[in-house]
Predict the 3D structure of the following.
Amino acid sequence: MNARYCSAVLGVALLAAQDKPDAKAVAVELFEKVPAGSEYRLEALNPVAVYSEPAFAFVHTPTKFAPNAIPLDRSAPFVLRAAYKRKLPSGEYQFRLRARGAAVFQMDGKDLLNTKVQKPNTSGDDPVPPPVDHSDPLVRPLQYPHQDSVATVKVDGAEHSFTLVAIIGGKGLYPSPGDLSVSFARPGQVDRLLGPDGAPTLTDPDWESYVAASDQRHRQDDLIRRRQASVDVVAAWNARHEKIRASLKATAGQAVPVVQPGTPAYNDIDRFIGQKLEKTKTAPSALSTDLEFLRRVSLDLTGLIPTPAEITAYLAEPAKARRAKAVDRLLENPSWADHWVAYWQDVLAENPGILKPDLNNTGPFRWWLHQSFTDKVPFDRMAAELIDMEGSQTLGGPAGFSQATLNDAPYAAKADIIAQAFLGQKMQCARCHDAPFHPFKQKDLFSLSAMLAGKPVTLPSTSTVPVVEGGRRPMVTIALRAGDSIAPEWPFKTLVQHSETAELPGKASVQSRRDVAAYVISPENERFAQVAVNRIWKRYMGLGLVEPADDWTRGKASHPELLAYLAREFMMSGYDIKALARMIIASHAYQRKPVGNGSDQMSAEARIFSGPVRRNMTAEQLVDSLHLAAGKAFECEDMNLNPAGDRPAKQFLNLGKPSRGWQMTALSNERDRPALALPIAQSIVDVMSTFGWRQSRQNPATTRDDAPSPIQTLILANGVLGTRMVRLSDDSAYTELAMRSIPAEELVKETFLKVMSRPPSAEESSTFVSLLKPYYQTRKVKGAETLITKRQSDNRVSWSNHLSAEATLIRMEEERKLRMGDQPTKRLTTEFRERYEDALWAMINSPEFVMVP
Amino acid sequence: MNVTRRDLLKTSAAALGATLGSALSAAPAVVHLPKGKADACIFLWLGGGAAHIDTFDAKMRGDGKLKAGSYYDSIGTAIPGARVCEHLKHSAPLMDRCVLVRSVTHTIKGEHAAAANLLHTGRTPSGTLQYPSIGSIISHELGTKSDDVPAYVVMGYPNITRDPGFLGAKHGYIYLTQIETGPNGLVRPPDVDNAREDRRETLLSKMREGFVKRNPADEAVQSQAEVSRQGFKLASPKFLNVFDLQRESSTLRESYGGEFGQRCLLARRLVQSGVRFVEVSFNLNFLNGSGWDTHNDGQVKQHLLIQDLDKAFATLLQDLEKNKLLDTTLVVIATEFGRPAEFDSGGGRGHQSEAFSMVLAGGGLRMGQAVGVTDEIGAKILERPVSVPDFHATIHCALGIDPGNIMHAGDRPVPVTDHGKPLLELFS
């Protein structure tokens, strides 16, 4: 546990910091709902959060969590106060306050520095500020639209107290502190952040590593705090699961079939699968090799290919234990959450718009999805919290799910998503008429929609089929008329008849949403657990036991007994996705070589799972693995078109700097303006969209349209991202590999392990070694400098000035430069570098690379 | 029998199409649908909302302040009685090859993205489906002309309104944002010369064929390898040469004008090479600070945009005509909405979707007409309102596509247009 967040200690900690000089950290407090005009008179108020920072730099603030750990909004504005006491050697100092909005810095209780209030901006054609000058070694340049307030004071060597009060966000502003800091410097010397001795300097490199560390620290602290906040809720869910387990134990489970000795069976799953293999006289496919298994299971559990270090460690394990050990390790990898988020973004139609949301945009509830998988939230609790739709709409809470901008019947859209995600009831056709191929009436969808709305809903005219006099008769049944009012009512009585709403842990503000949740996750509702296990099965085996996995009224289970068995196991485990994943992956069926053709997933062979069904990498797995192997960070622009922060979050979401594929979003340049382009992000989105990722998720989808296409080949081969990934720049892991003093044969082998997760064949080895060998001995350029590879994005363009000619030219120039790729290293000769790059290019573009083994 | 999921969907979709077809034939025939003979479309997109009264529907002059009206004087055109802005002097004499549709109307005026989406998809979003753009629909309905030419090319930024939606990635587009950089993904990186390209292909083919050899019975491996081989065909030198404008005479290049004009020239070359639908975005907002979205002082230099458009459009029509492509190529000038005759406090104009203008040219239609009439300040439609679905239906009919054709989103039938009716007076 992190002691800094134990609130009993914390009040004291701050006082101690104020009393005791030279504390190890700066004490910080946050205040909400401070009456306007008295933001600097906080004495009588209680802070809502108390924590510490290593120095006077505040780029992140702790997320606020509800008792069930979902993120909440703070008041707009909220106030940050930081305090520190220390001695300074006597002499003259210049103090610098840097802030985007209003702040006051006091020394010994007297105002020394202050910055002005940031005003909400509605303009688009403000002038672009002059370029920033990065050449001053003493201080990092001021980022638009921050302000500096500077004053010089003489100190006498005695101890001084320092206090900063800053107003963060507010009406019409983004609720973040920006680059808020206080630094000081002796004349002619470098600016150093105020705080303990050894605090970082206010220069570009120090600042960047401070921000990165702060990001990590706050993420970790958020995790600890939301776990503390939700102790009671977690206990209540555990108690519920205990009860479910007890009642299940009282009933007989699914009988497990017995299979012939020759039929491979690692666990019960194989006995169900084996029974059908025997019946149909189908031979199972061969067991995958250890390395094939490792690549497959790494992609399935983390969305990433294995690293050479992981491969080496894996092969060093005893052969019998290595697969199980790898699974244990991968299940604990934080990327578990990353890989699952991408899936639920599709299924739940998460569709944030970063520019004035419209076209069915939702809030970015990706962040809540991610934390739920990180925190191992049981699946039934996740479903219930999604259906409650509470928390912050713009900062990532499930409230974001309630949004559907420009949709004439938003709750009908949500009802359809919930029904197909959790119950396999696809109701989209019922939006405008009684569904022709499904047992749903339009009224079913709208009565569920009314439950989500918490009141009767009126059928909009746009959700009807117009009947034209004298025109053709519609072939669908239209029972409802525009303007009809539909009352809240549970439509799926055949699945489950009662809901014990009162027994659901936690609270919610819309009672009828709770009712929906209670019906959906009721242990009496067999469908809920079955749909969930079928989705998880499909994710790992490539094909559901029931297909289509989101439309059960049309599909029949290929293995109904196995489905029932898995559903019961899932409920017994407390709706634990990890436990189910472990069970599926432990089966021989999963560990076999893939079968079938990606485009022929319903083949008889696949339906009996003689092996897992053939898959290609998803778009996210592809771009994440390419970056991992190359050792390059995403380095793309923030998913934010208003870095100046002078507009509200509702209009301009800030989704931060992506480090994984799922964090990308639609770049929303419907206005088609060069100044709104985000070139690096675009190059990633180009690849992802070609490989089946949807930048706009206006409707839910369980299966992606990602069939192999010639354009996929081209975009990877010639596009900007592929070019950057193979470029031997000074931030490339391949460059480091080539700089190692190893024989050419070893370089080729290591490269194959890194990219293909296997050693080269004899033929491949000879091809690549003979390509590199003539240039190998002389590849290193003596005394060559290591280049700084960080892409300096021009931070001067924001929504408020994007219409100016200069903003357009800045972005077009960035686009042009990007096209040239990353700057090549000077440490390797051109002849060698180009050949090694070509080798890497051939590997990432080989058909094998994108196929999951 | 091996029945794939896709087959299943196709079958049920086909079955549904059949029932619907018979339902259609049972109903009384309402209109006879004309079929044009165009086989390609160039869609010039004036993003931001071009002021109809400052371009194709010239009215009494306003004063830029209190007195509402056009910002420029008007000139006569080759269409008797139809007057346009004085800055359209090259296009005005060519209006006998055009139809001025002056009575387009819809109800989304607040938001650019939403209106742009409507103009590209012909529909408002529903949340149950993502509707395809008109380019993707045409790619779907007409297919490609040959294997080595894509059906749909965009010159502008990729965005949702241009996407294939439920038609899927195969009806997506190839795009470029600047003439200089060429089409994204097709042009090899600047540092890869022929020697490197050869080396790369040799290495790749060794990786690929080794993989195929190691997995002789694996169908999936075979087809993935085939996709890899095919990909490089699309980037054939023959197709890439289309993007090389230096192959045109300098006189012609100059007469097209600046970046937008060069894009129009490329559009002609693309159509000539077999592309079905080319969207050319006029997004050079730096010319006047705001592009066609002329709020406040964006109005002051709006004439620069109009002159650029005029030069490019007039040259394009003549160039198409000279290459005998005008009768088979429909040129469209489209925008998300118009702008009111009144001026805002900064001397510019707000948004107006109740009445605005778009232009059709060529495509073998009966040209030289003005369709629809607005009132004396272009605020209200007096005659012949044209909805966005009607406008789309006209484009589809010109290309020989029945606007009532059924496309399939899974098993849900979706007509090409949302009950759009073509402008019959353009089909003789």
